[in-house]
């Protein structure tokens, strides 16, 4: 169902905001980068909320710049941005964002606009953007209030690591049980949970979202986490490394309730095609396990080789296809993959039906290639579903 969001701003205010679209397109990322820098300098406690790795990579400022620009373009009728806003609101609920956070963000966003653009921005423009931000914030607060009311719990609930299983060279699964012995919450296949990590000798709490990698109703919550080793340009993943190296069976982890708008539409009668790259298989594995015995399901997974392919035994099936970019000699000997190289449209046409519901997740390059292939094939947009790990990007 489409959420209708009617603007309450007067025409003059909306015209001023729309007039800033070209400037935002040119300077938006500089504004949001400066915004986060000032905000976190003056409010270091918010480093307990924001993913600092995404800050260093520039993903969070880029995502915010895209969101601000989209809001400006659609200020006459914010209904157009409602789907994207819903995705962000799901993440906010997982992070336990509250209404009192919004005025702080608004204050620093206006400061950033003024400080980056300087004399190019007058008081009338700042006032218009202040009014627009207030309206956009109200939209988010209203969405999030409804989501909190429907959530299994608010804030964080302690879960015990019942079992820790190494799935591949890079991926380890954690089976979680409520410390209080209470019930396991309902969730939709494809959703995620939030995890709060207080890492010794690190000054800030770290909040991360991890997809649930098994179907609901199993008596546990399972996350399957890739260890991010880092590169010369980027540090190793702080939380993923901690989970792999330090968290053991019996340890307790604070967890937020399942959330997310990427989940299986079980009401559809079309076949289901799941396409994953790397650790992007985790939400799709939840979907696969839920309906593999009930519906026509095709599962295509791409990985570098068998050594890094997690949950491989679980995804086995007569309509599962494994694609290894550079299969090892052991992979070749065992014959555990279907195709060497990449997932491409010419091959995809031969193994899955076009009239299907497509779900995909993985590295951004993989997702861009899959999305392009599906559109080239003529798959209707309403049958294409995907999930970004981290701030929402564009394909």
TrEMBL record:
<dbReference type="GO" id="GO:0046210">
    <property type="term" value="P:nitric oxide catabolic process"/>
</dbReference>
<dbReference type="GO" id="GO:0046872">
    <property type="term" value="F:metal ion binding"/>
</dbReference>
<keyword id="KW-0561">Oxygen transport</keyword>
<dbReference type="InterPro" id="IPR012292">
    <property type="entry name" value="Globin/Proto"/>
</dbReference>
<dbReference type="GO" id="GO:0005344">
    <property type="term" value="F:oxygen carrier activity"/>
</dbReference>
<dbReference type="GO" id="GO:0071949">
    <property type="term" value="F:FAD binding"/>
</dbReference>
<dbReference type="InterPro" id="IPR023950">
    <property type="entry name" value="Hmp"/>
</dbReference>
<dbReference type="InterPro" id="IPR001433">
    <property type="entry name" value="OxRdtase_FAD/NAD-bd"/>
</dbReference>
<keyword id="KW-0408">Iron</keyword>
<keyword id="KW-0813">Transport</keyword>
<dbReference type="InterPro" id="IPR000971">
    <property type="entry name" value="Globin"/>
</dbReference>
<feature type="binding site">
    <location>
        <begin position="388"/>
        <end position="391"/>
    </location>
    <ligand>
        <name>FAD</name>
    </ligand>
</feature>
<feature type="region of interest" description="Reductase">
    <location>
        <begin position="153"/>
        <end position="395"/>
    </location>
</feature>
<dbReference type="GO" id="GO:0019825">
    <property type="term" value="F:oxygen binding"/>
</dbReference>
<protein>
    <recommendedName>
        <fullName>Flavohemoprotein</fullName>
        <ecNumber>1.14.12.17</ecNumber>
    </recommendedName>
</protein>
<dbReference type="InterPro" id="IPR017938">
    <property type="entry name" value="Riboflavin_synthase-like_b-brl"/>
</dbReference>
<keyword id="KW-0349">Heme</keyword>
<dbReference type="InterPro" id="IPR008333">
    <property type="entry name" value="Cbr1-like_FAD-bd_dom"/>
</dbReference>
<dbReference type="GO" id="GO:0071500">
    <property type="term" value="P:cellular response to nitrosative stress"/>
</dbReference>
<keyword id="KW-0216">Detoxification</keyword>
<dbReference type="GO" id="GO:0009636">
    <property type="term" value="P:response to toxic substance"/>
</dbReference>
<dbReference type="Pfam" id="PF00042">
    <property type="entry name" value="Globin"/>
</dbReference>
<keyword id="KW-0223">Dioxygenase</keyword>
<feature type="site" description="Influences the redox potential of the prosthetic heme and FAD groups">
    <location>
        <position position="91"/>
    </location>
</feature>
<dbReference type="GO" id="GO:0020037">
    <property type="term" value="F:heme binding"/>
</dbReference>
<dbReference type="InterPro" id="IPR039261">
    <property type="entry name" value="FNR_nucleotide-bd"/>
</dbReference>
<dbReference type="Pfam" id="PF00175">
    <property type="entry name" value="NAD_binding_1"/>
</dbReference>
<dbReference type="Pfam" id="PF00970">
    <property type="entry name" value="FAD_binding_6"/>
</dbReference>
<feature type="active site" description="Charge relay system">
    <location>
        <position position="102"/>
    </location>
</feature>
<keyword id="KW-0520">NAD</keyword>
<feature type="domain" description="Globin">
    <location>
        <begin position="8"/>
        <end position="145"/>
    </location>
</feature>
<comment type="function">
    <text>Is involved in NO detoxification in an aerobic process, termed nitric oxide dioxygenase (NOD) reaction that utilizes O(2) and NAD(P)H to convert NO to nitrate, which protects the bacterium from various noxious nitrogen compounds. Therefore, plays a central role in the inducible response to nitrosative stress.</text>
</comment>
<comment type="similarity">
    <text>In the C-terminal section; belongs to the flavoprotein pyridine nucleotide cytochrome reductase family.</text>
</comment>
<feature type="binding site" description="proximal binding residue">
    <location>
        <position position="92"/>
    </location>
    <ligand>
        <name>heme b</name>
    </ligand>
</feature>
<keyword id="KW-0521">NADP</keyword>
<keyword id="KW-0274">FAD</keyword>
<comment type="similarity">
    <text>Belongs to the globin family. Two-domain flavohemoproteins subfamily.</text>
</comment>
<feature type="binding site">
    <location>
        <position position="192"/>
    </location>
    <ligand>
        <name>FAD</name>
    </ligand>
</feature>
<feature type="binding site">
    <location>
        <begin position="278"/>
        <end position="283"/>
    </location>
    <ligand>
        <name>NADP(+)</name>
    </ligand>
</feature>
<feature type="active site" description="Charge relay system">
    <location>
        <position position="144"/>
    </location>
</feature>
<dbReference type="InterPro" id="IPR009050">
    <property type="entry name" value="Globin-like_sf"/>
</dbReference>
<feature type="site" description="Influences the redox potential of the prosthetic heme and FAD groups">
    <location>
        <position position="387"/>
    </location>
</feature>
């Amino acid at each position: 169902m489409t959420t209708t969001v009617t603007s309450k701003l007067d025409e003059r205010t909306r015209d001023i905001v729309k007039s800033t679209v070209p400037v935002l397109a040119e300077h938006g990322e500089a504004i949001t980068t400066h915004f986060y820098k000032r905000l976190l300098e003056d409010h270091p406690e918010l480093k307990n909320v924001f993913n600092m790795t995404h800050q260093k990579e520039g993903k969070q400022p880029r995502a915010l710049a895209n969101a601000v620009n989209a809001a400006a373009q659609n200020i006459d009728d914010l209904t157009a941005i409602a789907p994207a806003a819903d995705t962000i609101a799901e993440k906010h609920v997982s992070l336990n964002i509250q209404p009192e956070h919004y005025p702080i963000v608004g204050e620093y966003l206006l400061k950033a606009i003024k400080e980056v653009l300087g004399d190019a921005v007058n008081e009338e423009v700042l006032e218009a953007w202040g009014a627009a931000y207030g309206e956009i914030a109200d939209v988010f607060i209203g969405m999030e209030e409804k989501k909190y009311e429907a959530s299994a719990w608010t804030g964080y609930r302690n879960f015990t690591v019942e079992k820790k299983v190494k799935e591949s060279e890079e991926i380890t699964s954690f089976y979680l049980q409520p410390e209080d012995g209470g019930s396991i919450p309902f969730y939709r296949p494809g959703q995620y949970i939030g995890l709060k990590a207080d890492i010794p000798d690190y000054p800030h709490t770290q909040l991360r979202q991890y997809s649930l990698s098994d179907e609901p109703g199993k008596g546990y919550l399972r996350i399957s986490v890739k260890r991010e080793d880092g590169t010369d340009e980027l540090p190793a993943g702080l939380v993923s490394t901690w989970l792999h190296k330090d968290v053991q069976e019996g340890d307790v982890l604070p967890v937020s309730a399942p959330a997310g708008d990427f989940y299986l539409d079980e009401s559809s009668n079309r076949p289901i095609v799941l396409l994953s790259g790397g650790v992007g298989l985790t939400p799709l594995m939840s979907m696969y396990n839920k309906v593999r015995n009930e519906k026509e399901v095709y599962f295509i997974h791409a990985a570098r080789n068998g050594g890094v392919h997690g949950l491989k035994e679980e995804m086995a099936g007569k309509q599962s296809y494994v694609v290894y970019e550079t299969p090892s000699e052991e992979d070749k000997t065992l014959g555990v993959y279907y195709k060497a190289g990449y997932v491409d449209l010419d091959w995809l046409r031969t193994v899955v039906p076009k009239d299907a519901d497509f779900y995909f997740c993985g590295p951004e390059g993989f997702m861009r290639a899959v999305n392009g292939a599906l559109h080239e094939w003529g798959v209707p947009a309403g049958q294409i579903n995907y999930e970004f790990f981290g701030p929402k990007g564009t394909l």
